[in-house]
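Lecture 7 notes: from sequence to structure.

We start with a single chain of 558 residues. Read the sequence below before looking at the structure.
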Amino acid sequence: MAELALKPDRERLMAHITEFARRVKLSGTPEELESFRYLQAQMDSYGYRTQLLSHDAYISLPGAAKVEIDGKSLRCITHSMSVPTSAAGVTGVLVYVGEGSKADFAGKDVAGKILLVDGIATEEVAALASAAGALGQLHVSPNEHLYEMCVSPVWGSPSQHTLVNLPTTVICTIAKEDGDRLRMRLANGEKVQATLTAEVDTGWRKTPLLVAELQPTGEDAPFVLFSGHHDTWHFGVMDNGGANATMLEAARLLALHAADWRRGLRICFWSGHSHGRYSGSAWYADEYFDDLDRRCAVHVNVDSTGGKGATVLTNSGVIDELRPLASDVIERVAGQKHAGRRHGRAADQSFWGVGIPSMFGSLSHQSPGPVKMLTALGWWWHTPHDTAAHIDPDNLIRDTQIVLEVLWRLLASPVLPLDYTVYAAALGEQIARLQTGLDGRIDISVLVKAVDELNANAKAILEAGHVSVDRAEHINASMMRAARHLVPLNYTSGERFHHDSALPHPAWPSLEGLRALTSLPKGAPETAFYAVHARQVRNRVAHALREANAALGSALND
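Now the structure, written as tokens:
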């Protein structure tokens, strides 16, 4: 495979940044659609076949908010998917619940009250507060800035089954200084009442989705999916203008060498990321499931590139089998050792149920600081201050170069750079831990053997060396079939056709039924009940591994 010698063009990147700084791009608004048309014109000019889709999405746009205590109004905002109020608002007694963890809620009667919560608003706190019957949430920012957030725990647009999981509380955020005063008053035993008023425009609306495709290897051939969202909070020049500039420039440069690709490239710009909890990518995963299942080899997502001060390249999320690829490119371009962090439940990663290996999301991060933030993307993230002033052209070029080279290897490598020995090692550690914890209560030796077989098959593929074009295509098809079974084990509860919630997930969530049995003391009276579910989980994992091994084995034996 020839090395790609092309480099990102600074002037082109910054011209895109200038364009993205012109508009606030709320999901489903005319301004957002106008900006989508700019994306389409650019992709058309690079030779891609484009289609600007429009689909229904459940979108929530926060409006004016008011927090009133003792007749004084505090500076505040409300949030996407908060419950709206009448002009009179809702009034309740404040109860302090720390950072709003399950432990913080334990033993507290919060029904009908307004919670004072340390930290940026999250879907996890919203879910806990709603379940506990709270009336509202008053979040205290970690600094003087007020951070826009979507607080829905539902991934994508809700169905009739998940609609009930949306927040039932009114949610606002105030600045740290005001929150510190309220926290002190509560600590001194004062009874403090707050009135929250929130305007939130939530409902179904049409949102755009741009698909740009270049398929030099044939219309029904495998492809790499490359994506990022275009909707923004405020002008959102870093989040996600930086990534959109990266996408455009990578697309332009890659198209110049399309004749050398071994598979196609499909580029998607989403709406509904910020105001619909990834509604665009979730809809696309559902609507085009069959096509993605048959043809998509890998998903590369990109978010918030080029931030000023973003010097940390070690912490981007990458699925196990793509970690060697990410590590090699990041070290070569940036001189840093990638840590191989697991993906979080974010970043338009709507394709794990389909079974598509994925990498990235946010790529470059800020160094750790004294203020606790949800993401290390700069103090301006999700605020009106996310402007062109916080883009560093050199960082944007560096990040774009990393993405460009990753995509080039995915497109041009005869054999897809998927290393399932890394996956086998990670799953093997989980199985060994479970075997120790189960202590013979159920037999999972079938999983131990299956992981060993997976490692052997994956190692044999890596050692195959130079192979013919036909053999390479057969190996790639086999790895894609294996991925449809392996990726859901790693990143979903095991259900391929429904999206898991947007709440934080444990590593390898498909193993939770086995973990639950290990958590019981040996001889516990509930053991037999837990063992029923644990066996079912074992069987699901064993089946997935058997199918994956059959796929990989066919690549070696034919």
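The radius of gyration is 24 Å. Keep this in mind for problem set 3.
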